[in-house]
Amino acid sequence: MKASAFAYARATSVANALELLAVHGEKAKVLSGGQSLIPAMNLRLIAPELLVDIGELAELRGIAVSGETLVIGALTRHADLLKSSHIVKCAPLLRAAVAHVAHPAIRNRGTIGGSLAQADPASELPACMLALGATIVVRGSGGERRIAAEAFFTGIYETKLAPQDLLIAIEVPMARTGAAHFFQEFARRHGDYAIVGLAAQAALQGDGFADLRLGYFAVGDKPVLAKAAAKLIGVAITPALLAKASAALSNELDPHEDQQATSAMRRHLAKVLLARCVATLLNRPDLKAGGRA
User: Fold this and answer.
1) In this structure, are residues 9 and 50 in contact, taking their beta carbons and an 8 Å threshold?
2) No. of H helices and E strands in the chain?
3) How many whole angstroms separate alpha carbon 171 and alpha carbon 152?
4) Residues whose CB is less than 8 angstroms from the CB of residue 43 and which lie 6 or more positions away in sequence, other chains included
């Protein structure tokens, strides 16, 4: 199947892109890497009348440190995230996650902004944004605004972006002393869509957590920042406590059933990942069975 007929415009600047979006509104779609948009068009899941190509806007590309914040341009490609020394130092969770995004050909073209704007609930990077406490920088007709990642993703392929908006950058707080991360996903093959995945960012304190943020993906309509993590912060972690957190996690998730897994299977795998995450971060092999409670 091929996409329905559409017009094409290559934006010459961010201002030009915003002008085009303001004129055409919901009839237009922004094209960056195209690794999610084009397949959706070919399947006739969406049928924009105009593609606004922002792929050549160098001002939206790059990774830099500003004070205590890592700033990533929306057009930064996945492959560039893997190679960046700033990412390794300031947000190693991102590097761990990007290595699981599809395959090299996709990572060479796909962009972080495109992934976040697409908001696929099975995608790795939106969950990372929740775990990292990131801020999404958006520019529209009313100027620039910043949206916390927790509020940005609203549903399946849905975000706070309005039709006239352009995702400009992502701001990530730099990892501090005592920070640790965990990333793992279950997929039938490396590069396939995840059945269930977890991106976690923690602040270690003694034998426990001063903070713990658990970003799950492929467990519902959007990435989930698990509230169950609160049960594991500022307390001594025991198998019994982990079992209680695991049960709370199961209750708060609402995963779909599809050809890959049942809802019950996804809940079980989410609990397995919780146990592995806590055991790994605290170097406590005795906790690995905690997700089976």
Assistant:
1) yes
2) 11, 14
3) 13
4) 1
Beta-carbon-side half-sphere exposure of residue 247 (alpha carbons within 13 Å): 6
Q: Nearest Cα to 261, choosing from 190, 197, 200? A: 197
- Residues forming beta bridges with residue 54, ordered by sequence position: none
Q: Which pTM was predicted?
A: 0.95
- Per-residue pLDDT tens over the stretch 239-274: 999 999 999 999 999 999 999 999 999 999 999 999
Q: How long is the chain?
A: 293
* Pairwise CA distance, residues 95 & 83, whole Å: 8
Terminal CA-CA length for the chain? 46
Q: Which helix (H) or strand (E) holds 58?
A: none
- From residue 215, alpha-carbon distances to 78, 86, 106, 119, 212 in Å are 19, 22, 23, 14, 10
User: Which parts of 119-186 fold into alpha helices (H)?
Assistant: 124-132, 149-152
